[in-house]
Amino acid sequence: SNFILHQFGGLHKLWDTPNDFFLMISMLFIPVMYSVGLAMNVKSFTYIGEQKVSGLAFASEMYTFVYMCFIYFIILSVCVIRSLKGEIENKSIQLYTQRINNRKKIYLAKNAAYLILAVSAALIFIITSIICFYLFMIRRADIAVPQFCENGELLYYSVNILAILLCFIFTVNLSLFLGAYKKSFQAMGIFVFVWLAFMYLKEISYVKYFVPIYYVEEIVNSDMGNCEWKYLVILLMLVFIYSVISIVLGQKKFEKSDI
Predict the structure, then answer these.
(1) What residues have CB less than 8 Å from 15, skipping those under 6 apart?
(2) I want to staple 254 with a disulfide (CB 3.0 to 4.6 A). Which of 14, 180, 181, 203 is the partner?
(3) Rounded to whole angstroms, how far apart are CA atoms 159 and 221?
(4) What pTM value is reported for the model?
């Protein structure tokens, strides 16, 4: 019960500093601007797909665009690192230790808070994209169909969305781990380096099988009739293993840190 209570303590701290939430939610401008631009036939916005899109397909493609931009992984990483290392550096973390003398619970609470942020942002983004589709995109009968999803799309696009969400979950766990070991700017730099290294390693034989984004791109780039379940399962296992290692090592380091 104490662990659950402290989970809410971590969430309370997160929502007390809403900048993190609004930074992540700023991704909503992507489906809003794109759908409005297409509906108004703005030349800067084009659709080059071979098939007409449904509501779920549009939401999935917008979320894939967020993944390709990469910027929101950096934003989330900065928020997570600042939440832990920033509070250690400015000593505000002591407010936690005075109330609950258990650093492991503090670390896990922060981890849970940002995982909930990542999942919440994804849900809000998908729902907003679907709303934008029916408010604006549906006016373009040449590129959109009124259905929420067509035959075979529900499973296919759900897997795509889940694969990208797993990348955000991986980002939270890795960033908190880096925040426990390194100074804020060092941790941020290492995260960017790791992600760029992944972009290179995913092209190398054998090594690519240990890189999460290799499986994400295999899933996203797969054909509609070929839902890559095996890649999703492997991705899920890989993110789970990396996350467990990051959490265990991160909370042990945090327990020994001088705060």
Answers:
(1) 21
(2) 180
(3) 12
(4) 0.89
